[in-house]
Amino acid sequence: MENIDYEYLCTVIGNLSCVPIRLFRGEKQVFYHAVVSLPEDPIKPYLKDILSITSHIGYYVTPDFFYYGIVRSGESTIAIGPSMQVKADDQTLKELAFRCDVVREDIQDFVAGMKAILPLPLDSILQMLCAMNYVMNGEKLGLEDLRIYENEQEALKVEAEELRAEQQFDEEEPSLHNTLATEQTILNFVRRGDTVALKEWMKTVPAMRGGTLARDALRQLKNTFIVSATLVSRSAIRGGMDVDEALSLSDGYIQKCELLTSMERITNLQYRMVFDYAERVERLRMGGAPSKFVLDVVNYVRRHLYENFSTEDLAKALFLSRSRLSVKFREETGETLSDFILREKTEEAKRLLRYTDKPAAAIASFLGFSSQSHFSRVFRKYAGCLPHDYRKQYSRP
After folding, report:
1. Position 333 pLDDT exceeds 80
2. Which residues, 6+ apart, have CB-to-CB distance to 67 below 8 Å?
3. d(CA 279, CA 298)
4. Of 53, 77, 311, 361, which residue is most buried, by most CB within 10 angstroms?
C-alpha cells in the first residue's frame, strides 16, 4: 500500500508492545525503535534466518525460545521481537549477549534491558502482526474471535455429549492405555540423569496406546507433547534441577511445539526434549546420587558460569566458610571444587567453540578467564587439546 509512514507505524507498535521493532528496506535496516535500552540488538544472531522468511507474515523461534515476527510489503519489512512467554534466566541472557558481541562491561546492561522487555503470549504478537499486515497489505488475516458467547458454549456442550455417547456405544473394543509403565520408565531415566540407559531403551521402546486427547492427529500429538513436557520437567526437578530452570525450559519447548505443523518434527522435538532434561540432570548429579549440598553447589556454578566468581562468593551464598565448603565438596564428590568449576567452564567452552563462530579470545573473556593463555591451559588440561584444535575437529565442511 502507498503513503504509509512505516516509521510512525513501528513507533506506535513498539510503544504499545514494549518490544523492539525494526524497519528494513530490502536487507538494509533503516529504522529501529525500542522503549528499553540495549547495548546491542538481540536480533543480530538470527537476522539472516528472519529475513529469509518470504511470506507476508512469518515467525521465527530461536533455540532459547524467543520469538520474532515479520511482516513484508514490497521492499519494506518490519521485524518485531524478541518476545517470550516468560522472562529468561540470567544465564540464557548472558549467552545471548555473547552471541550479540556485547562487550563484557555492558553484559549486565544487556541482561537488564532484556528483562525489561514485556513478556507477551504468542497470540498477542500474532494480533499485532495481523494488524500491521492489514495496514501494509490490506489483507484481513486475523485470529478467531476469542470472546465467549452463550450460543457457542451451548454448541460445544452438545458436541461434547455427542462424543461421549459415541464412545460409550462404539462397537469396537475400547482403546487400552498401556502408557503408564512406559512413562514411569522414561521419567526414572530423567530423574536419575541416566542418558546411556535412556538411549539404549529408546532403541526398543514399545508401541504406546495412549488416551484420545483430540480428534485431529496433529492436535493429539501436540497435546501429548504438553503432557510429556509437564511430566518430564517435574521428574527433572525431583532429580535436582532448579525449579525455575526446569519450568522455563518446559514453557519454551511447548511454545516451540505449538508453532510446528509437521508430526515428524514434533516427534523429533519430543525426543530432544526428553534427552535435554536427562542430560541436564546427568551433569547436575555427576553420575551419582548427590546430597542437597552438592546440588546447591552445582546449581550455583551453572548459574554463574559466565562470571568470574570466587569460591568465597560461593561460600557466602551457601552460608559456609570457604575452607568448609571446599573440604565438604571434596568429601562428597571426590573432586576439588576448583577442578569442578574449571571442568564445567571447559564443557561450556566446548559447546561455544562447536556451535558459534566466536573467537577463542571472546569465549575466554566471556567465561571469566583472566587471559586467553590461561583459558588455553585450562582447556588443554580438561579437554585434552587446545581450543583451536577442538574447533577444527568439529568444523563443518
Report:
1. yes
2. 59, 60, 61, 81, 82, 83, 84, 122, 125, 255, 259
3. 14
4. 77
Q: Across residues 5-34, what is the average pLDDT?
A: 94
Q: What is the CA radius of gyration of the chain?
A: 25
Beta strands 57-61 and 21-25: pairing type?
Answer: unpaired
- CA 137 – CA 391 distance, rounded (Å): 46
Rounded CA gap, 176 and 166, in Å? 17
H or E element in which residue 305 lies: none
Q: How many helices (H) and strands (E) does the chain have?
A: 18, 5
Using alpha carbons, select from 228, 213, 243 the residue that is nearest to residue 275: 228
pLDDT at 148: 34
Share of the chain above pLDDT 70, in %: 84
Q: In the beta sheet, which residues pair with residue 57? A: 71
Three-state secondary-structure class, residue 89: coil
* 56 close to 133: Cβ distance less than 8 angstroms: yes
Of 260, 241, 239, give the one whose Cα is nearest residue 249. Answer: 241
∠ CA 104-107-108 to the nearest 5 degrees? 130
In total, the chain counts a number of residues equal to 397
Strand pairing class (76-83; 21-25): antiparallel
Cell 571469566 belongs to which residue?
A: 368
Contact 252, 298 (CB under 8 A): no
Mean pLDDT on 377-386: 94
Inform me whether the pLDDT recorded for 41 exceeds 90: yes
Q: What cell was used for 397?
A: 565442511
- Give dist(CA 188, CA 5) in Å, integer: 57
Contact in structure between 363 and 387 (CB atoms under 8 Å)? yes
C-beta neighbour count of 291 within 10 angstroms: 13
pLDDT tens for each residue of 239-269 = 888 888 888 888 888 888 888 888 888 888 8
d(CA 97, CA 91): 10
| Residue in the block written with cell 562470571 | 307
Q: Given this model, what pLDDT does residue 25 score?
A: 93
Instruction: Give phi and psi for 101, each to the nearest 5.
Output: 65, 35
Task: Tell me the sheet residues that pair with 79.
Answer: 22, 70
